[in-house]
Amino acid sequence: MRKTLIALMFAAALPTVAMAAMPEGPGPMGEPSGHMMGGPGHGGEHGPRGKGGPFSQLDLTKEQRQQIGKLMGDQWHARKDLVKKYLDKLPAADQKAMQDEIAAGKQKTQADIRAVLKPDQQKKFDEIVKKQEQRRAEWKEFQAWKAQQPQKAQ
Question: Which among 15, 34, 51, 134 is most buried, taking Cβ atoms within 10 Å?
Answer without folding.
Answer: 34
